Amino acid sequence: MEDPHFTSKLLLFITWFLFPAMVASVGINYGQIANNLPSPERVVPLVKSIGATRVKLYDADPKVLKAFANTGVEFIVGLGNEYLSKMTDPNNAQAWVKANVQAYLPATKITSIAVGNEVLTFNDTSLSGCLLPAMQSVHNALVNLKLDSQVTVTTAHSVAVLQNSYPPSSGAFRPDLKGCISPILDFLSKTCSPFLINAYPFFAYKANPKQVSLDFVLFQPNAGITDPANNLHYDNMLFAQIDAVYAALNRLGYNKMTVQISETGWPSKGDDDELGASPENAKKYNGNLLKIISQKKGTPARPNTDLNIFVFAMFNENLKPGPTSERNYGLFKPDGTPAYGLGFSGIGVSGGNSTSTGGNSPGTNGPGVYLSPPANSSDGYMDISLSPEKVIRSSWRRLGMGLMLILMAMAFDI
Ligand SMILES: *[C@@H]1O[C@H](CO)[C@@H](O)[C@H](O)[C@H]1NC(C)=O
Ligand SMILES: *[C@@H]1O[C@H](CO)[C@@H](O)[C@H](O)[C@H]1NC(C)=O
Ligand SMILES: *[C@@H]1O[C@H](CO)[C@@H](O)[C@H](O)[C@H]1NC(C)=O
């Protein structure tokens, strides 16, 4: 090669070619506290219909893990809080990992195990005390089975682990949790595992509807707020919450840690005292959120970091306890039809006449695209649900453009 920089140019080109061509990745929580959900086989096309490439489970349901084999969908499996004390025993952890993770790899792409959910904010010191030991023995089991390079171990926290979240730059963990959180952060950092946070601007609105602007929580146009410490401007609460988490991590010296939003969502129905829970607001929240994910926006404090978000949730779950909102977070009803008009056509999964063509009903935009209104290239919605064909086509376009750029670079010896 005459051009000494050819290799680096080629590498640059390959990176440029591969990464932007990837479809922005949506994650979805697949909760199953219900007795009326469709079979996992029928959920596969539904997950694909919303453009989700990552699914988070609250257990390691064998039916789900089998149904999603060879689909390319990545999984976070869960170990419920009730297992924590048992998992502190290395033998139990090893048996669990063998039966629930190793057994499904590599056909089902399990990438992470979430040990416990929102453990620290139960204020149950004996449960909290088991958390890190359980995470460690699950990780050690993965090491023993030589799976630790492909499967990370983490745990999901509620934003209530923060003492301060406003303004975002003042974000800090609850002082009484620091003794617990610091060693967990140390573990996550050493094992290159992400920090998971469940963030619901809905709760902030519900608790304080007179003071919290609905437009600010729903990603609608609004004046927003400016963080006086760094002049960063926030036009939605979720970004403010995420940056408060980054600030809290920075404060403890973990400024490189990856943050994933393991849950966020909005209920389409609630009790009389649950202001804001409505199909209109759920549509605005989740619709705008999906648009933002597809635009690959970062937060004001981390503009170049992709949002890593798991929407809550796939289905309305009829057996969840608590207020009405708890049973109404689903993008879909149990019959597979959309819970509200988010633009997904869903798939008829009840009854015996399902044609199982991947949910592609007449009038949609071709294989894999389930969105109405029809394609509008300036509409962020389309990007998250590009059909494989379109991705490939756009990849070839990029390839052509990339080659041209390289040739130009070589010609002008840039
Ligand atoms: C846990 O403790 C914190 C701090 O003392 C308190 O603010 C919070 O309300 C408690 N949460 C629960 C679920 O008891
Ligand atoms: C399937 O379609 C046929 C013909 O339209 C109808 O008679 C039958 O009741 C349908 N079955 C179900 C389970 O919907
Ligand atoms: C496409 O989106 C743009 C910008 O949002 C809008 O102005 C235009 O009316 C849309 N076109 C169609 C056909 O929906």
UniProtKB/TrEMBL annotation:
Keyword Hydrolase appears in the UniProt entry: yes
UniProt biased composition (Low complexity): 353-369
A GO CC term assigned to this protein in UniProt: plasma membrane
GO biological process, one term: carbohydrate metabolic process
Catalyses which reaction(s): Hydrolysis of (1->3)-beta-D-glucosidic linkages in (1->3)-beta-D-glucans
Pfam families in alphabetical order: Glyco_hydro_17
InterPro entries according to UniProt: GH (IPR017853), Glyco_hydro_17 (IPR000490), Glyco_hydro_17_plant (IPR044965)
Span of the signal peptide: 1-25
MF annotations from Gene Ontology: glucan endo-1,3-beta-D-glucosidase activity
Principal EC category: hydrolase
Keywords linked to the UniProt accession: Glycosidase, Hydrolase, Signal
Region (Disordered): 353-372
Entry EC number(s): 3.2.1.39
Family: Belongs to the glycosyl hydrolase 17 family.
Record-given protein name: glucan endo-1,3-beta-D-glucosidase
UniProt source species: Helianthus annuus (Common sunflower)
